[in-house]
Design goal:
This protein is mainly alpha-helical and about 180 residues long. Helices cover about 50% and strands about 10% of the residues. It contains eight helices and two strands, in the order E-E-H-H-H-H-H-H-H-H. The protein has a two-stranded antiparallel ribbon. Helix 3 packs antiparallel against helix 4 and helix 4 runs parallel beside helix 7. It starts with 8 loop residues before the first strand and ends with a helix.
Length: about 180
């Protein structure tokens, strides 16, 4: 039962039902990554629950998306190895926007979209910090005051919600914001 937690990555052989609405049958499962075994830091666990809720509320497709799976799997491995956690959630959100095809070509365009679709106002001076967060790995230090980091953490999911149907409030966001 411990393998079937939020965000566990399993290699499974499943037999799907012939009719929609029926239950499938699980033949075998092998863990590739188990979050609670590896993540003992409370902030990492909070980030993990935030990611699980974000993905649950934004990914409704029933078809396979290998590129998205590879991205999420890589992001989980990065979370496991990241020593500086204050920037990880923002790093993930920016890369998630890119994976969804919603990331503008330049950081100033992203700021314009955030200003247009969220109640926050971000000025152009934030563009270098966004460029730093958009690096292949989460940066150790980003020149962001805590209040601005919190506003971005709230605004980026709102931007995703503008492009996603049936998006609901992400409840774990308030917990993550408080811990960060």
């Amino acid at each position: 039962m411990g393998w079937f937690q939020h965000m566990s990555v399993l290699d499974m052989v499943v037999y799907l039902p012939k009719q929609s609405g029926g239950l499938g049958r699980l033949k075998e499962a092998t863990p590739l990554w188990l979050p609670m075994v590896r993540l003992s830091h409370p902030l990492k666990v909070s980030i993990l629950y935030f990611l699980a809720e974000l993905l649950y509320k934004t990914r409704k497709e029933e078809t396979a998306d290998p590129a998205m799976f590879d991205f999420v799997h890589h992001a989980l491995l990065v979370l496991e190895e990241t020593p500086q956690l204050r920037t990880y959630a923002l790093w993930f959100l920016l890369h998630y926007l890119a994976q969804m095809g919603l990331m503008p070509a330049h950081e100033t365009q992203l700021l314009q979209e955030l200003n247009a679709h969220t109640p926050y106002h971000f000025d152009a001076s934030l563009a270098p910090a966004l460029a730093c967060l958009n690096a292949p790995m989460p940066p150790q230090q980003v020149p962001l005051p805590p209040a601005l980091r919190s506003d971005l953490l709230e605004a980026l999911p709102r931007l995703i919600s503008e492009h996603t149907t049936h998006f609901e409030e992400i409840r774990s966001l308030s917990i993550l914001r408080d811990i960060m």
